[in-house]
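Hi V.,

Quick status before I head out on leave. The structure for the redesign project is tokenized and pasted below; the design run finished overnight.
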């Protein structure tokens, strides 16, 4: 796994002008996978904040994420347990 993470880090931080078309395509795909995983994780965290009694306006103020966005990301994880 560390080798895979190192390769990903190199791919995502390489100067764009030095990348081949295949490297660019791969970097876009990796970036999208990371973005999707990050959004899922954020949704779980937001749902946990809400389950601990924080209101959506308080979560928005605390995190800087718009209230409606926070709810949308967390919605599928609410009452999951």
């Amino acid at each position: 796994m560390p080798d895979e993470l190192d390769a990903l880090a190199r791919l995502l931080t390489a100067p764009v002008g030095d990348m081949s078309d295949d490297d660019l395509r791969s970097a876009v795909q990796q970036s999208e996978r990371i973005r999707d995983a990050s959004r899922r994780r954020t949704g779980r965290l937001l749902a946990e904040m809400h389950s601990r009694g924080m209101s959506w306006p308080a979560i928005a103020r605390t995190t800087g994420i718009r209230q409606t966005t926070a709810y949308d990301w967390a919605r599928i994880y609410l009452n999951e347990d």
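Above is the designed sequence. The radius of gyration is 17 Å.

G. will cover questions while I'm gone.

Best,
W.
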